[in-house]
TrEMBL record:
GO terms for cellular component: COPII-coated ER to Golgi transport vesicle; endoplasmic reticulum membrane; endoplasmic reticulum-Golgi intermediate compartment; Golgi membrane. One of its GO terms (biological process) is endoplasmic reticulum to Golgi vesicle-mediated transport. Keywords: Coiled coil, Membrane, Signal, Transmembrane, Transmembrane helix. Residues 1-22 form the signal peptide. Its main location: membrane. Residues 29-241 form the L-type lectin-like domain. This is L-type lectin-like domain-containing protein. GO terms for molecular function: D-mannose binding. It comes from Stachybotrys chlorohalonatus (strain IBT 40285). Gene3D superfamilies: 2.60.120.200.
Amino acid sequence: MRIASGLSASIVTLLGASLSQAQYLINEQSFGYSGRLSPPEGNGKIPHFVVLGNPQPPEILSNKIILTPVAPGNQRGSVWAENPLKITSWIADVDFRASGPERGGGNLNIWLARAGHHAIGASSIYTVGRFEGLALVIDQHGGSGGMIRGFLNDGSVDYLQHHNIDELAFGHCLYSYRNLGRPSQIKMRQTDTTFKVEIDGRLCFESDKIKIPAGYEFGVSAGTPDTPDSFEIFKLVVMADSLQPQGDTNSNAGSQQQVIKEQEPPKKKSKDNTKDTSKKSNMFEDEDFEDLITADEDADIFQTSKTQFQDLHNRLQTTNHQLSAVYRMVNKHNQLDDQRYHEIKQLLKGLMTEVKEDLGQLQQVSELQKKMKDLEREFRSMRAEVSNKIQANERSVKGYLTDHHATLSQTIIDGMPRHTKLVLLFVGLQLLLAGGYVLFKRRLATTPKKYL
């Protein structure tokens, strides 16, 4: 029982030592970690940082920097580290606060880019041209009330000329950041395997396909429209597991491994030089077990209780180390399984979203086809009705004109004088003329002639 309790205590001690990792603050990339942005003798400047603004520079207070004021609008401000980050595994915390009127707007951009204060300055993701690095954007995208999105660029994409910048985001999450009355904390974590973004202790998004190289500069910029939000930065803190640059990490790890090996207890060797009894088991192929294998030795060499106890002590220590290595391996596998689970979950979520979008598009297409068929039927019925009405109008007009022509012809015929009356009138006139002539002759004959 005492051996088991000692074994468990050794395992807990070794696990605690293996899981605990020291974090080092990178002063040249950080400000606001001590409660003050600048020392009393700093003359209102932040050490190791460059502050830019247009048309007015940001206001630096004792505990915060106001990148954009609440009035007037159309302001731009930024703060950039003067020196690049020389490591590839780091943790960056940014505390910010956004406040403004009900319909205020603007965006906050957290950068890790090459030559940031020269190439980017106080630009936002919508006004920057070509840049190389990472951009984390906080704004009210699409009327969502607040969203955090991540963008990457290797210098080949001109964001200023791109027709749709929103489709370039590789990760996003919703977050209502305005008028909270407290600072919000964004934590970016870059390891050898993953890149992760957290907001107020909750996971926003992560990816195992992103590896940001060393040599980039941290920076924060903000821009506002006519009705602005006031963006305030309280701190930018960058920490790392080691302060060694990227090129010196391997040598540092090698020296640490050498120190660990020197601290291990020496292994007993057989007194018989003619026999090579040191055999390593090949059932453990992981590098964590290679230095933990105890050589097999003949039992005849342990003549005293002291040597027996020493051999038992060494083997118990080796067992503790092996159990610790097993636990580390299990922990690694659990982390890999969790990571793969989250990846599969994200993939399934994205697949379900795409399937829903495709189904929605297909449903919209089917509805559009139905509407087209309904319109086609309506056009056909309308065409038939118009044709029938035109034909009916033609028949009615034709009948009306026919009746009108017949009536008009009959009226004309009835209104014309008859030939009989005309003939009788002519004959009567001739007879009257003839009668008058005869009477004139008779009267002329009976009248006495007068002679002069």
